């Protein structure tokens, strides 16, 4: 076994910081000169994203080489063996010992931009498998979305600003993904928050849109407080340990090492993790704060697509994955079978999936499905299935982006800017075969149909929940899978099958509902030359019914649909691939401290050589026992459930069941066949109640707006009014009444004789003293000055006298 | 006491101090008593220059340079502008003082008496050691950029706000 | 050097400044008197810094200089505005605040 496996590096890995820098510069160029460029700045945005993507691809390739060089260096495998053996299937000493388990040192570079009181604030990069994966993902999806947007928002009055915000948004996400320290992470996080506000409110002339933008911004800000508090808590907890090891308490690597070191205070870790998780709840639309996400559909469809697939909402999941040691030890994920992350994730899965059943707006169905899938990711992280959760980010990004773009394509070319499935869609698959095909593929992936990508990620989360002892959450995951399949089947049926309705049948309505007014501004006018959005009505006559979208829309769809199938095979245990596991998962191996904060350091695994893999999990190693002195862990050792078709069967059956039931119901309810469920909500009260509950989104919005927001203003004003009416008036009236009777008596006896004289006398005194003091209130500055200094003198004398 | 005087009091420095101090006090009195606004401003320059000289005697060279640059360079120019723009007569004016200016004398005298008493009482016999060298500017920057960083930034905002406020106030619109 | 020297000089300048603030009628003159007061304070700060051999007094003096600069800027702008509105900067004519 070779010592000191030196990890290979390369230009792209060393200069990965360029990936966010290029779009940031692109943003500046678009803002500065975009309007004067021939294509309004979109070419700069696309070019910068393409360049970022190129560097991200280079970094990915070099990262894979780096992983290979480390594994090779640790002597367990010949070249290529890493890729060829199934580690989780054969946990024997020969193959499964710790080959491929050596810690791969991330490429960390940091530049200090601020130094104060011995504390350094750096800006840099922390490139490991997770970062590389997300960099690639974000750059890729952003590029596709920008290409899509050139057609979708063509002719928009704020075309240039749209691309500027889109580019900055991607830059923010990229900054956050390769953040080397918490400060940089917060920077990227907040850039995204700001840009999401600008993009959701892109068509701010509609009040609903600006309200949605504000709601998104404020709701996420509620969570952001958690990020600040959590960062501070973690900083004060970790700083001492980090400084002793040559870093500081903001460094993500130092925080990870500290959390795994066993020296960290449990309560600091717990509360830090809780605070950070609140931030994730806000950003990733988890249960109590998920309400902003569906409203964010008010933005242009490309924005929804970008927001929901690879950026923004993934940020929360990414934060948990990035600081996983903090959450792992803070919530004791390895040792319990219930914790905050899993609970929130499970609640989110079920309630969001239930909400998706009652939506008529196709984008809202997708929005709730995103919330639900984010719940899966959180659940995965909560049950210790780090890799499946991160893999689900990866696969979900492709198929969800594809679904949103397909919805955009439908509204652009099929349903005349409407997103209402019941009114304006149906039977579209003949008219829009490419859109329909990519939608079906992505739906299958989302539902977890075997051999599509979602199956390999989602099923792994569910399987690992069971494997790690989180039995209850295993069942929740299964139920969620069935619900996902059911609501997506409903949406698919309504959109592409059955009879064509409304705009899909070629009708035009003149009055538009509030939700599709947003689409007024998507300019279809590109087909007719670029008019302003205000001339929307011009092309009513020219609109020739549903038709397939132009290539700039379908090309991203096809690419994404292909990836919705293909991306799953990076880590498909069913066919024996696990590249993703090898490349992305941080290995839970102890590292010698000498190598700290240096990519050239030793990455030798210590003390783990001959640990047999116990059936129920590890008993030693990172995350189970504290690292021995002189070594440090940067990631917990995690179990991987072994895949077998037998264990996958329940979820496959449930998905098939969900699709079948839903298809049957859809045919019955929407297709007009005779069916006992038709009109169920009208005939059966509990069903109606549930329907109302779902339509009103569990009354959560009402809770927030009517109860929580108003509980501040309303009860206070009400209480004040009550006090005013009852107590003060009562007192005044009572005093008035008793006062009058007493007054009569007093008047006759006391007033006329005794008081009158005194009052007159006091009046005279007051008047006279007022007159005497009046000259002081002269309005003259100098006199005031004299009084001020005179009084100061007197005060000084008093102080001196008292001191002596 | 006399021994102390002989050994530790630098006579030349004291003489310099007294000369400058006398000039400053005279200048200050002229500032508040002259009948010509422009003369008052010029006497103020004398006082401020004297303050800068005293800073050098007190080993505060950086502050002295700042005093010259900020006060004599900038503030005095502002004052002269103010005087010109408000069209003060260049010659003597008869009514520069208030009608009730006399009340200033007892207030100022009382204040002076209290302060002198307190100072003599507390510091009457103490002698400042000669500093080996002027206060190094690095020491100042250390304070400014470490403990004094937040007030320093706050001060930047004050100056910015003052600049904007002055523009808004003085603009003709 | 006697410690009292600087402090006494500061006290004298301060009192003269106070007299100026009280006695002067012209707004610009009042501002000048305020400058005297601020400089008196600064001399004290520097003297205390010298006694204690610390840099903090110097830093405070610099703060005071900066604040004084801001004060003069705003003060003169106000004087200009008053002059523009009333054609006079005599303070005793500004008595809208009379009680």
Q: Largest interface: which pair?
A: B-C, 88 and 70 residues
In CATH, the architecture of the largest domain in chain B is Up-down Bundle
Alpha plus pi helix count of chain B: 7
End-to-end C-alpha gap of chain B: 67 Å
| Order of helix and strand elements from N to C terminus of chain B | HHHHHHH
The CATH first-level class of the largest domain in chain B comes to Mainly Alpha
> pLDDT below 50 for ≥5 consecutive residues: which ranges of chain B?
1-7
Q: Which range does the strand content of chain B fall in?
A: under 5%
How would you characterize the largest beta sheet of chain B?
none
Proportion of residues in extended strands of chain C: under 5%
CATH superfamily of the largest domain in chain B: NADH-ubiquinone/plastoquinone oxidoreductase chain 6, subunit NuoJ
Largest sheet of chain C: none
At CATH level 3, the topology of the largest domain in chain B is: Four Helix Bundle (Hemerythrin (Met), subunit A)
Domain unit count of chain B: 2
Mean pLDDT of chain B: 83
Count of DSSP E strands of chain B? 0
Structural class designation of chain B = mainly alpha
Class of chain C in CATH? Mainly Alpha
Radius of gyration of chain B over all CA atoms, rounded: 21 Å
Descriptive overview:
The complex is a heterotrimer of chains A (804), B (173) and C (99). The model of chain A is unreliable at 1-5, 75-100, 509-543 and 595-617 (pLDDT under 50). Chain A is 63% helix and 3% strand. In chain A, the strands form 2 sheets. Chain A has a two-stranded antiparallel ribbon. Chain A has helices spanning 11-14, 18-33, 42-73, 81-84, 93-96, 129-152, 159-177, 182-200, 207-244, 252-260, 266-283, 292-295, 301-309, 313-322, 324-330, 340-356, 362-382, 386-414, 421-424, 433-447, 453-467, 471-496, 514-517, 551-566, 579-584, 645-669, 680-683, 685-695, 700-773, 781-803; strands at residues 107-116, 119-127, 591-592, 631-632. Chain A is globular and about 110 Å long. In chain A, a hairpin with a 2-residue loop joins β1 (107-116) and β2. With 804 residues, chain A is mostly helical. Chain A is built from 30 helices and 4 strands. Chain B is mainly alpha-helical and 173 residues long. Chain B has 2 domains: 3-94, Four Helix Bundle (Hemerythrin (Met), subunit A); 136-173. In chain B, 73% of the residues lie in helices and 0% in strands. Chain B is built from 7 helices and no strands. Chain B has helices at residues 2-8, 11-33, 37-57, 61-85, 104-123, 137-145, 149-170. Mean pLDDT of chain B is 83; it is low at 1-7. With 99 residues, chain C is mainly α. In chain C, 79% of the residues lie in helices and 0% in strands. Chain C has 3 helices and no strands. In chain C, α1 (3-23) runs antiparallel to α2 (27-52) and α2 packs antiparallel against α3. Chain C starts with a helix and ends in a 13-residue tail after the last helix. Chains in contact: A-B, A-C, B-C. Chain A binds chain B through residues 116-117, 780, 782-783, 786, 789-790, 792-793, 796-797, 800, and chain B through 98, 100-101, 103-104, 107-108, 110-111, 114-115, 117-118, 145-146, 149.
């Amino acid at each position: 076994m070779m010592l000191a496996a030196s990890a290979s590096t390369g230009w792209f890995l060393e200069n990965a910081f360029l990936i966010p820098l290029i779009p940031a510069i692109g943003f500046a160029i678009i803002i500065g000169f975009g309007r004067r460029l021939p294509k309004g700045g979109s070419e700069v945005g696309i070019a910068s994203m393409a360049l970022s993507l190129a560097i991200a691809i280079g970094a990915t390739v070099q990262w894979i080489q780096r992983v290979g060089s480390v594994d090779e260096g640790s002597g367990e495998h010949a070249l290529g063996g890493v890729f060829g053996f199934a580690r989780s299937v054969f946990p024997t000493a020969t193959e499964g010992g710790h080959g491929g388990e050596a810690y791969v040192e991330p490429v960390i570079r940091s530049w200090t931009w601020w130094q104060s009181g011995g504390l350094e604030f750096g800006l840099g990069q922390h490139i490991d498998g997770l970062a590389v994966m997300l960099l690639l993902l974000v750059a890729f999806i952003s590029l596709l979305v920008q290409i899509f947007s050139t057609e979708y928002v063509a002719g928009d009055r704020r075309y240039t600003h749209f691309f500027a915000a889109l580019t900055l948004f991607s830059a923010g996400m990229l900054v956050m993904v390769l953040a080397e320290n918490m400060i940089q992470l917060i920077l990227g996080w907040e850039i995204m928050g700001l840009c999401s506000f600008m993009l959701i409110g892109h068509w701010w002339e509609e009040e609903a849109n600006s309200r949605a933008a504000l709601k998104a911004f404020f709701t996420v800000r509620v969570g952001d407080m958690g990020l600040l508090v959590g960062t501070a808590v973690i900083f004060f907890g970790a700083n001492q340990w980090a400084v002793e090891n040559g870093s500081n308490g903001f460094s993500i690597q130092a925080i990870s090492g500290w959390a795994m070191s066993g020296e960290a205070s449990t309560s600091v870790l717990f509360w830090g993790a809780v605070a950070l998780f609140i931030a994730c709840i806000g950003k990733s639309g988890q249960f109590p704060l998920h309400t902003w996400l569906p409203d964010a559909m008010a933005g242009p469809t490309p924005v929804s697509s970008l927001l929901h697939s690879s950026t923004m909402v993934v940020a929360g999941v990414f934060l948990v994955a990035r600081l996983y040691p903090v959450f792992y030890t803070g919530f004791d994920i390895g040792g319990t079978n219930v914790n905050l992350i899993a609970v929130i994730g499970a609640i989110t899965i079920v309630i969001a999936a239930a909400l998706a059943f009652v939506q008529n707006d196709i984008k809202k169905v997708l929005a709730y499905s995103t919330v639900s899938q984010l719940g899966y990711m959180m659940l995965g992280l909560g049950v210790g299935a780090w890799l499946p959760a991160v893999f689900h980010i990866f696969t979900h990004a492709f198929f969800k982006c594809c679904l949103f773009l397909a919805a955009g394509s439908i509204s652009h070319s099929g349903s005349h800017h409407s997103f209402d499935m019941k009114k304006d869609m149906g039977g579209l698959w003949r008219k829009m075969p490419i859109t329909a095909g990519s939608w079906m593929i992505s739906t299958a992936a989302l539902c977890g149909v075997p051999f599509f990508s979602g199956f390999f990620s989602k099923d792994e989360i569910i399987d690992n929940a069971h494997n790690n002892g989180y039995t209850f959450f295993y069942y929740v995951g299964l139920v969620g899978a069935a619900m996902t399949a059911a609501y997506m089947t409903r949406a698919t049926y309504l959109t592409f099958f059955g009879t064509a309705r409304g705009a899909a049948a070629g009708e035009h309505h003149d009055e538009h509902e509030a939700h599709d007014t947003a689409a007024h501004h998507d300019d279809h006018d590109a087909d007719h030359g670029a008019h302003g959005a205000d001339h929307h009505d011009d092309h009513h006559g020219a609109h020739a019914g549903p038709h397939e979208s132009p290539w700039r829309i379908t090309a991203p769809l096809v690419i994404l649909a292909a990836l919705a199938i293909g991306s799953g095979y990076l880590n498909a245990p069913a066919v024996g691939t696990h590249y993703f596991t090898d490349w992305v998962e941080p290995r839970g191996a102890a590292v010698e401290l000498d190598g700290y904060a240096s990519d050239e350091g030793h990455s030798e695994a210590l003390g783990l050589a001959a640990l047999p893999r116990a059936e129920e999990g590890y008993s030693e190693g990172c995350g189970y026992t504290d690292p021995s002195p002189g070594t440090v862990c940067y990631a917990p050792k995690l179990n991987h459930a072994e895949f077998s078709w037998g264990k996958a069967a329940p979820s496959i059956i449930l998905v098939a069941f969900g699709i079948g039931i839903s298809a049957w119901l859809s045919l019955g309810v929407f297709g007009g066949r005779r069916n006992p469920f038709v009109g169920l909500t009208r005939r059966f009260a509990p069903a109606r109640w549930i329907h109302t509950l779902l339509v009103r989104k569990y009354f959560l919005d009402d809770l927030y707006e009517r109860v929580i927001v108003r509980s501040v203003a309303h009860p206070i004003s009400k209480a004040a009014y009550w006090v005013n009416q009852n107590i003060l008036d009562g007192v005044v009236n009572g005093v008035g009444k008793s006062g009058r009777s007493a007054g009569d008596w007093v008047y006759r006896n006391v007033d006329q004789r005794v008081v009158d004289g005194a009052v007159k006398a006091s009046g005279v005194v007051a008047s006279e003293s007022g007159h005497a003091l009046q000259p002081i209130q002269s309005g003259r500055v100098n006199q005031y000055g004299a009084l001020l200094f005179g009084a100061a003198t007197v005060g000084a004398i008093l102080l001196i006298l008292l001191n002596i | 006491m006399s021994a102390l005087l002989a050994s530790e009091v630098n006579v030349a420095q004291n003489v310099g101090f007294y000369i400058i101090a006398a000039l400053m006090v005279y200048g200050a009195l002229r500032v508040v008593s002259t009948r010509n606004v422009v003369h008052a401003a010029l006497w103020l320059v004398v006082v401020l220059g004297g303050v800068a000289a005293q800073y050098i005697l007190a080993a505060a060279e950086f502050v002295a340079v700042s005093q010259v640059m900020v006060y004599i360079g900038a503030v005095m120019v502002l004052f002269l502008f103010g005087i010109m723009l408000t069209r003060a007569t260049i010659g003597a004016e008869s009514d520069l003082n208030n009608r009730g200016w006399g009340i200033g004398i007892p207030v100022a005298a009382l204040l002076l008496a209290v302060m002198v008493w307190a100072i003599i009482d507390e510091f009457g016999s103490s002698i400042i050691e000669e500093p080996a060298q002027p206060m190094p500017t690095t020491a100042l920057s250390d304070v400014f950029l470490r403990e004094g960083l937040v007030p320093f930034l706050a001060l930047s905002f004050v100056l910015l706000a003052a600049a904007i406020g002055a523009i808004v106030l003085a603009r003709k619109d | 050097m006697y410690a009292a020297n600087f402090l006494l000089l500061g006290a004298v300048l301060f009192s003269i400044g106070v007299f100026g603030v009280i006695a002067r009628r012209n707004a610009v003159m009042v501002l000048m008197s305020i400058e005297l007061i601020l400089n008196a304070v600064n001399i004290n700060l520097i003297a205390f810094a010298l006694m204690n051999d610390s840099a903090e007094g110097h830093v405070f003096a610099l703060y005071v200089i900066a604040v004084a600069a801001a004060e003069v800027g705003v003060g003169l702008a106000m004087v200009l505005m008053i002059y523009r509105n009333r054609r006079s900067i005599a303070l005793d004519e500004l008595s809208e605040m009379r009680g």
